[in-house]
Amino acid sequence: MPIAHIIGLGKSGIAAARLLKREGWEVTLSDRSSSPSLLEQQQEFANEGIHVELGQSFEPVESIELIVVSPGVPWDSPALARARELGLETIGEMALAWRYLKSPWVGITGTNGKTTTTALIAAIFEEAGLYAPACGNIGYAACELALAEKQPDWVIAEISSYQIESSPFVAPRIGVLTTLTPDHLSRHKTLENYYNIKAHLLKKSELQVINGDDPYLRQQGIDIWPDACWTSVKGEKELLGDRTFGAYIENGWVIAQSEKILPADSLRMVGEHNLQNLLMAVAAANLAGINKSAIARAIAKFPGVSHRLEHICTWEGIDFINDSKATNYDAAQVGLASVSAPAILIAGGDAKEGDDRAWIDTIKAKAAAVLLIGDAASLFGDRLAQANYHAWEIVETMERAIPRAAELGRQNHAKVVLLSPACASFDQYQNFEQRGDHFRQLCLESLAKE
């Protein structure tokens, strides 16, 4: 019986372990944590014949024939580097799913806009009567789809740079590249490295959809991707070198491959960035052969994405909005630019490298006050002070932020209280979803008592 080792006891690792067990492998799952919940799961997996090791780092041994890595595990970690030196096959969970899923894929990657674009594409395919669930960074783990009795008609996969690194042979039918700005540089070191990882997915894709309004992608890609469907919210006359855009907005209509598809205002989500996400989703659906009536119906029904400019409640005329998915400066700047001023901003968490200048400029233009939480609070306070913005205070936790935001909102006649952290969540939460859920819970509980 071949031996496999899965690193990471999250959703992806669990699905990978069960898939390999079904396929006749001897499987070990390991995780550095040994929390009470994982200890409970350890016994559950033992009953399934899957061995679980907790509280210890993975060390490769030659008897292992396959190592599967969960998305959060650094691809360049010393243990994985040693495994590759030993000649042990080492792949990501996404790559394992690729081996067993025979359906065509749409692969969506980029710095920002991935989740909304993925959710829009999945909604359009569903409206067209296709079984095409979203997976990867949202929805299912890819291996969960491979485990299911019913195989999907299409796989709609949001794929991070980490997942591309560990799944180099995944080759979607359609690859979508949303935006490219500095992110994860602590891991990828340079913007060029980061771009090359993202571009690899598109090179493996049969058809490409690329955001033509993104300055970096335009600069890098016009000649590299001559046959791609480039998109622009600025209209066909905004030429792309000597080529026209494949999908664009003109006179209030979304046009794809020279055909009117639907009015641009059919999408209920705010912000120009969401019009770009709409264009990329429509372009991908059009390339997949989905008829425009299904596309139009899906967009008109689309409710938005949890944790991305998600309206939670209105209290005393102030909208409380959850933008927890904004885990870097660029996403947070877009989120704040999209809401009405004056706003009370809640920001902070596990800080990332990046250029914060546009974000700070938008704070100065739109935020009546900024409440800072998490490990980045002091750093952000210092940066705002250096930029001559002084209406900030450190509140440390979400529990303190919500009532204080309500108080400041009332004092400043604010239109919006916005959670848009510009940070990862790992200092106080397991992920951005848990952070956004906590914000939602606190808003609904504490404001209802007012």
TrEMBL record:
<keyword id="KW-0573">Peptidoglycan synthesis</keyword>
<protein>
    <recommendedName>
        <fullName>UDP-N-acetylmuramoylalanine--D-glutamate ligase</fullName>
        <ecNumber>6.3.2.9</ecNumber>
    </recommendedName>
</protein>
<keyword id="KW-0131">Cell cycle</keyword>
<keyword id="KW-0067">ATP-binding</keyword>
<feature type="binding site">
    <location>
        <begin position="110"/>
        <end position="116"/>
    </location>
    <ligand>
        <name>ATP</name>
    </ligand>
</feature>
<dbReference type="GO" id="GO:0008764">
    <property type="term" value="F:UDP-N-acetylmuramoylalanine-D-glutamate ligase activity"/>
</dbReference>
<dbReference type="Pfam" id="PF08245">
    <property type="entry name" value="Mur_ligase_M"/>
</dbReference>
<comment type="function">
    <text>Cell wall formation. Catalyzes the addition of glutamate to the nucleotide precursor UDP-N-acetylmuramoyl-L-alanine (UMA).</text>
</comment>
<keyword id="KW-0961">Cell wall biogenesis/degradation</keyword>
<keyword id="KW-0547">Nucleotide-binding</keyword>
<keyword id="KW-0436">Ligase</keyword>
<feature type="domain" description="Mur ligase central">
    <location>
        <begin position="108"/>
        <end position="285"/>
    </location>
</feature>
<keyword id="KW-0132">Cell division</keyword>
<dbReference type="Pfam" id="PF21799">
    <property type="entry name" value="MurD-like_N"/>
</dbReference>
<dbReference type="InterPro" id="IPR036615">
    <property type="entry name" value="Mur_ligase_C_dom_sf"/>
</dbReference>
<dbReference type="InterPro" id="IPR005762">
    <property type="entry name" value="MurD"/>
</dbReference>
<dbReference type="InterPro" id="IPR013221">
    <property type="entry name" value="Mur_ligase_cen"/>
</dbReference>
<comment type="similarity">
    <text>Belongs to the MurCDEF family.</text>
</comment>
<comment type="pathway">
    <text>Cell wall biogenesis; peptidoglycan biosynthesis.</text>
</comment>
<keyword id="KW-0133">Cell shape</keyword>
<keyword id="KW-0963">Cytoplasm</keyword>
<dbReference type="InterPro" id="IPR036565">
    <property type="entry name" value="Mur-like_cat_sf"/>
</dbReference>
